[in-house]
Amino acid sequence: MAEVAERSTVDILRAARERISDPERWTTKEFARDAKGYICPVRHADAACWCIEGSLCVEHDVEGNEIELEGRDTYRHLSEAAELLDRGANPASVNDSLGHEATLEMCDRAIQLAEQEAK
Hints:
Elements: H1 9-20, E1 32-34, E2 47-50, H2 52-60, H3 73-85, H4 91-98, H5 100-118
Antiparallel strand pairs: 1-2
Helix pairs in contact: 1-2, 1-5, 3-5, 4-5
């Protein structure tokens, strides 16, 4: 049986960002919604849009809640990036209050932080 290579923090952050890069595939206030705007599990077949934390949950193959993200390098980098973007902010507050562009900027900063750490 072949081993599956573990994905890097940078790869996971890039994939999570890519999922929400189109504003139509991004949401606020909930981890995931279907095409009609109803709340659904992040890995449900009907999920059509995600917040950044929901997108990160998909990449980590966990249910949608912050507890499952805490302690992961990806979440740590997103949290650091949120703080750099807006003092006192966290990933959810950037996503829900500052908007799509700010969320993508937070992701870009988190990717940069992860790349620097990986060197």
